[in-house]
Design a protein that fits this description.
By secondary structure, this protein is of the alpha/beta class. Helix content is about 40%, strand content about 15%. The longest helix has 23 residues. The protein is globular and about 75 Å long.
Amino acid sequence: MWTPKLEKSSGPLYLAIADAIAADIASGHLAPGARLPPQRSLAQALGLDFTTVTRAYQEAGRRGLVDGRVGQGTFVRSASPVQRTAAVGFVDMSMNLPPIPEDDRVAQRMWESLGKLHGPEMTRLMLRYQEPGGALRDRQAGARWLQGWLPGVEIERLLVAPGAQGALSAIVATLVHRGDVILTEPLTYPGFISLAAHFGIRLVAMEMDEAGPIPHALERLIATLQPKALYCTPTLHNPTTRSWTLARREEIAALAGKTGLPLIEDDAYGALPLAPLPPLASLATGPVYHVASVSKSLSPALRLAYLVAPDAGAALRLAGALRGTTAMASPLTATLATEWIESGLAFEFLDVLRGEARERQQLVGTLLPRETVEADREGFHAWLKLPDGWSRGEFISRLRNMGVSAVSSDTFAISAPPEAVRLSLGGAVTREELARSLAMISALLSDRPAMTSLIV
């Protein structure tokens, strides 16, 4: 059993153990992939308190030296370009980030592919502007990426946009004027709420059930308010994690076609399901604007989205709106995404992300009470419905005091917000960190609010 050589130090013992781990990794005494002793066994061998060793392993994890795997132990990390650091004692579960995979070999290969981007073609790319809808090669790669859930997209309808927000801005600019109405789900993407406020647009919530928008109620809203568009997230909805049923998608698509109501389909999570339901863009007879960001399926750092217009004419108008607002998506990140898609690395990494999401969702199913949580095993967020007695504001505050941040329903609400919070499972750097955070959330749920607070 590996045992650290602890030098005399005036500092805390847990830091001395973490320093010893670092020193033995640097010297080669601890090889990549080596399993460290169980925390309790090492504590007994050193004659220390169990919590001291626990803090030492946590500190080593924070430095990116080791990884904890739930049910398996703690292992020395392999060299990796992916940074796995987190603020000491604090886990941010508020931003809905893709989880960092425990096995990041594919990610290493993706970064190594940067070395292929050289030569005269890259020089021209670096020193030239492009058309606002993206280069032909990048649009062709986008069509290939969408093939898994939206096959047969014509290149003349597809644009490369600077992220979902850039795509949505262009769509709203072409469809809506100040004071107009857009229908949305009662809980919706905060970025679209901000966008509507910027454009002076009124958002009105549709009536929903577990299958999706209720058709007869939606038809009444269309007749009464004459909205300019309907904005929605039918797959792995943010924040509730629900997906519209196929029957409901077909009903809403048919209703939109009958009334001529444009649909804005935010498909940020559409790449994640292994057996995806058909998107509205493949069902509707009327105009559908399909936005497929790669932030949740490849990388938020790319700031890239593939925007599919209803027809070539609409695509030209959208390209004009992109020119007037953002000029173009970054050719550098678009080229990188194209390289990953053409080489197949993008699809390999998507499979890795799916596997990591399933592992993290399994922790949710194990550690959180089933009656309080909604989740989909193919996504990486969860919707926590608070028990009676808890208010969302008080729960968020108590959770933050415990070192975990989450986001309340107010952030997403068009109408009255429910007592609920969204948890991002990708915010935790490792599964072990996520398991600790979920255990704290579970413990907080089991207490009455008055028992968690002391005011003097």
